[in-house]
Amino acid sequence: MARGENPGILGLAALLRAHGEALEADLADRGYDLRDLWRRGGRLTWRLLGVIYRHLPPESATMTALRNATPAAELERAAEDVDPAEGRWSQDQMLAAASLDTLRQILHALYATRGANVGLPPPPTPRPGVAGTKKRKRLTLEQRRLIDPRMRQTKPQEG
Question: Which has the least CB within 10 A, 23, 60, 68, 132?
């Protein structure tokens, strides 16, 4: 279920079936009891449950459960056409991923300077809502010759 959409009662019921424990923990943090949803005169209504769900922070138990249940292919697709500001990661999580990327690059460089055969630098940690780096195609030798004047063969002029 996409976060921005209005899920309705059936969508919220599906969310409860899939991630009820996480949602119950988030409700308890906010002073609501999930059982009030079925109690007569309870403070929690389906509408309020939907409002709370739509405004949960990215680091909440429910958002974490949804993120962890999202297949990798869907995360990649989401990374291509979603604004990073709408991603499900908090600023802290983005900073932690950036720190991890930096650490992995430092280790890669350190191992390379020590003579280890490390190969290509590590790819960045995938982040929802942030487009990944695409692999660049390598130019053929002929294409490089066309671009780089130093590689062009000059014919001796006859005269």
Answer: 68
State the amino acid at position 145 in one-letter form.
R
CA distance 54 to 4: 7
In a domain, 158, yes or no: no
- For residues 63 and 20, membership in a common domain is answered with yes
The separation between CA 71 and the C-alpha centre of its own chain, rounded to angstroms, equals: 11
Neighbours of 7 (CB within 10 A): 18
> Which residue has tokens 């809502």?
129
Q: Give Cβ neighbours of residue 79 (< 8 Å, ≥ 6 apart).
A: 126, 127, 128, 129, 130, 131, 132
Nearest CA-CA partner of 17 in 30, 2, 34, 31 = 34
Q: In this structure, what DSSP letter does residue 86 have?
A: G
Q: What is the Cα–Cα distance from 63 to 61, expressed in whole angstroms?
A: 6
What is the domain range of residue 34? 8-69
Task: Specify the residue for token string 């949960």.
Answer: 56
pTM of this prediction? Answer: 0.51
Per the domain annotation, does 82 fall within a domain?
no
